[in-house]
Amino acid sequence: MKDVVTVVGEPTGGNRSLELTAKLTHFKEYAVSHPQLLQVDKVLMQAIQEPAGFAHVLIYGPSGVGKTTMIRQISRRLSEILPAVSSDRSSYRHASPDPVPLLLLETRPPDGGAFNRADYYRTALKLLGEPFYERRLLVDIDTEQTIEKKGHRRSKATQFNDSPELRHALEAAMAKRGVRAVILDEAQHLMKVGSGASGGKLLDQLDWIKSMTNVTGVLHILIGTYELLNFRNLSGQASRRGLDLHFPRYLFQHEQDRQDFQGVLLALLKQVPLATDLPALMQHWFYFYERSIGCIGVLKDWLIRAVAAAIRDGSDTLTQGRLEEHALSLSQCERMALDAIEGEQKLGYSESRRDHLWRLLQSGMTSTTVPTSVVSTTVAVEDVSPPAKKPRKKRSAPSTTESVTVSAETVET
Fold this sequence. Notes:
Elements: H1 13-29, E1 31-33, H2 35-49, E2 56-60, H3 67-81, E3 102-106, H4 117-127, H5 144-150, H6 156-159, H7 164-177, E4 181-185, H8 199-216, E5 219-224, H9 236-241, E6 242-246, H10 255-270, H11 278-282, H12 285-290, H13 296-312, H14 320-325, H15 330-347, H16 351-361, H17 372-383, E7 401-403
């Protein structure tokens, strides 16, 4: 009988597959802290730690820009640095519930015409580990019938299927679990207000968010596509109580954006758990930009698809041909680009808006022109060249998060 000898250090076929699968999982979890992400992350963390009068934060950008990665990083950091302070525990059966500094909810589209607030309360309560709440009811039998008749009238509560009991239970649960911030992903679904949608109905939704913030002291962060732009500036108070953050893609027409995009691409390709020809792939960086339209989330998903297919086929190399097989089609990219550009154009700043603002501020005065100091200051700031990039420092240890600070054009060919 012959002995079967296995060479240590050289994995067999089955072990090799398991090893590559584990590396693929690691690649999925890897995140690049690129400039656009870092900027939004910094401002958002400041708002969470000190809202300074803000009741809600709107974060909008194109689909696939990397909002999910931002949410994951914010969630991890909040759990590490924010002590959750629980209060009013006397009415609960558990004396020391685990703190939940960040409550993350995916806002689901309604089954009917309008957003279902009661369903939102139920989902949030379950995530907080509070599937039950206490109900106390005292009914005067002589007035019960009158109350039932009045209840048939349509109101905001019936329009959005609101439930005061569930809302009070959620507000109490937030205090109990020490929630500091609520993130509503896909928040554009909050804008589903039924037939005849108007600014007034959208304002009702923002007022609802603001009211919950006032009661609980918990900042609500709404993350979604450019559809959230319709939530901006619905009223003077809503403008004052809301912080707007744009999470943009990298724009090809800006040289700095092109360099940053190449840096992100290089960082991702270095983490691919397969053999790659980095110089050759980086020569086609514009193709990666074309099929991701400058969105890092789209780029990362694309690489994951290609790597997973290569592992499934038993290949240990990621080639340009494999990447082309799993790229989004031109028609898909064109549709995505049109949506992104439409949102970007809505955000485009024009001097006519500043002129209009100063006409309002100078109402009743003879002169309604923009002051010279304001114009000159703006021009001076815009003319300042961006600071030079610092060279990348050599890392001492591997990490699942990498900060990109250098262009990929430094790759030797």
